[in-house]
Structure formats: structure tokens, C-alpha cells
Input
Amino acid sequence: MTWRRLMTAAGLVLAACQPRYEELEIEVAGSAQVHVRTDEIRIPEGMVAAIRVKPVASGRREYEAFHLVEMTSRDETVLMVREGPELDMFVLVGVSVGETTVDVSIRNRDVDEIPSMVIAQ
Amino acid sequence: VHPQRIIEPMLGLCIDEMSDERRCTHRRVWWSAIAMLGVASCSPDEPDATGVGELGNGDFEYRCEGSSDPVCADPSVEGTFPSCIALGASFSLTYRATNREFKDAHAAPASDRYFSGTGPSYRAQAIGRAAFVAIHEERVVDYKHFQIEAASEIVLLEEGGSPLHGELVLNLDDSIEIPFFAGGPCSPLGGALSRNAVSDDPSIASAQLSDRLRVTGNAAGETEIIVRLGELERRVPVVVLPGPPTPIPPPRRESGGADSGESGDSSTGDTDTDRGTDTDGLDTTDTGTESGDSTGDDAGTTGGGR
Output
């Protein structure tokens, strides 16, 4: 019983050490006709955009370089989200018209989800 | 075994006088041939145009899939990477990473709606703006956008490279070869379209397709060559002239020794000048063969359901 309490306490301490996620800072690399914000991704079908992402913490503890962001599309037949050539870069590919959601996680912890849309040209 | 006996044939060298000169020559030839074959088999065919990826990690390499692709047919834009592709046109695209980390990256279309094909041959399917991505393992390391536009005209080039606007004039028995390709809102409008050329009256002028359109004057008169490229059609008026004027024989002199052929030579020279439009000389075989007045060429787009 004591052992279980200790593990729970250790877990709580570790969780408290993680920065508190507030939002994802997104910068579109290139001038593609895309609309990428923390709360929405909109990209025309057939087009591609590279984005740089940086997690922003709400508390005093900031995210470090090792807090790698992962982005995953729930439906890659609509929007493909792949890692880019650099660590903080992702490439969005408008595969076909439709809607999906992009899940954002940091060190395997889900922190956000972005409603996403691939629109017709 | 003396090391020289191993090294010498490998390098194709004859180092000392002990070597048999004839045998050495044979070795040189063989090793040169093997080396040339090796180089030829190792170096892939050169692209017709290259365009840097938008993320700068390599080059997208473009190759023409037929002689109606202006990237290869139009001397004024030859070698220019096309930012536009003609709707329905075929081309080949690969990716070569300059960043060695991504050396296995390959090109793939972002959306099947705009480009069909499994690579490296693709066909433009719909009007719009669409990209190719370079994929290395699971990562997208580069990409390049293209504008897909419908071709709006058939461009034929006269000798000298200027577009042909009026009629095509040639002498009887002459042949001229004309590059032709699709034009549109941007240049070059890349991609090869299916093509066809037919003469309205093959007894006056016949049309044959090879890399270019070859028109041969068979009889004096006027007709039209109908050129088709994808969905486009253009009727080109053709005038076949009866040929150069028959040379007037020089006045004969009483004494036979003086007509050493001077004036006769000059008339031959005139004939050549009149045939200045003939790009490759007279081909009497083609002139006599009328079966090929109408000819088609799929320019690599047959089975277009890619």
C-alpha cells in the first residue's frame, strides 16, 4: 500500500515538473495559400505548406528544446501531416477535400487538437 | 606473379618495353570499353530541366515524355523548368536530394486529383495549383508547386524559331520540318500532349510526324495541314509553289571551247537559294510515298488512365 502511494506521489511530482501547455506557436514557412492557426488549419487541395511549431507554456516553466512536438492527422486521406526536414518543422499536404483533426502531443502526451479542413480550389 | 602483370591490364597501361605492344593496345581498347560501359550504366540519363525544391534540400528533375513538350521542342525555353503544366499532358518527374541525409527521397504528387501516375511518369488531371512532395522515409523533406492550365493554342515554329502565323510556303518536292507544341497562359507550358497531323489534300502536300511535323510539297497548289494537339486543332494553310524557274540555257557559241559551264553552275546555285527553307534536304523517297499523309503520335500518352 505504501509502495503504491509512493508511486502516485512520484507521478504527481513528475507531472508537476512538465511545463503547462497553453498553445502552439505556428509560423508558416513559405508563401503558400494556407491558413494555419492554433485553432484552425485550412489548406487548398493539392497544395503543400511547411510550418514551424513551438509549444508555449502558461506557467513559469518553459518548454525546452527536448520537448519535441508531434503532430498527427486523424485522416491522412484528407490531410497528411508529416515531419519536415528539420526538428521543429512539419509539412501539411492537402490530399483531398474534407475535414479532419490534427492531434498535437509533446513527449507522448496529448496536449491539443486542431480542427483541420482541406478546401477545394 | 609480378604486381605489374595485375596492375598493367587493369589500368590499360604498358609500363616497360618488355610488354608486347600489340597485346597492350588490345588491353587498352578492352579496358577503355569496359570503363565507358561502366560510366554509361552508372550515370542515369540527364534531366531536361531541373528546379530547386521550395525547401532547398534538392532538385526536382523534369524529363520530357514526347516531342510536343515545349521544354524540349521550343528552343527559346529549352531547359527551363516549367512552373506550368498543360492539362492532360504527360511528363516525368524525379527528385535528387542535394542534402545527403535525404538521398533516398523520391517524388510523389500531393493529390491524385491533380496528377495521376505512379512515377516517374505523371499526367496533369485538373486545372489548379498543386505540388509534388519529396518523401524520405516518413518525412516530407521538400516540395514544389506547379500551375496546371489548359493549353490555348498550337504553336508552330518557322525556321529561325519565330512562330508561324500565316501560311506555310514551300517548293514542289521540298520538305520542311517544323517543331510544334502547346502554348497557353504561361511559358513553357510543360508536358507532352497526344498529337496528330493530317493533310487536307495529300496530293498537294503530305504531313508526317516524327520529332517534328514534316510537310512535303507533292504538287503545285494550295491545301491545309490539320494539326491536333490534345483537344486543340489548328489548320495551317500550305502553298506549294511549282518550284524554281527553269534555268534559261546560255546562248551557244559557234566555237565549242568557251562554254566551260559558268552559267550552268550559276543556275544550280539559284536553285539552292530558293530552297532555303529546306531544313534537311530533299527526300525523294518521302515525296514518292503518299501512304503516310496522315499520321498520329501518342507522344507517350497512350493508355492515359495513369
Summary: The mean pLDDT of chain B is 76. Residues 21-42 of chain B form the longest helix (22 residues). The two ends of chain B are 59 Å apart (CA to CA).
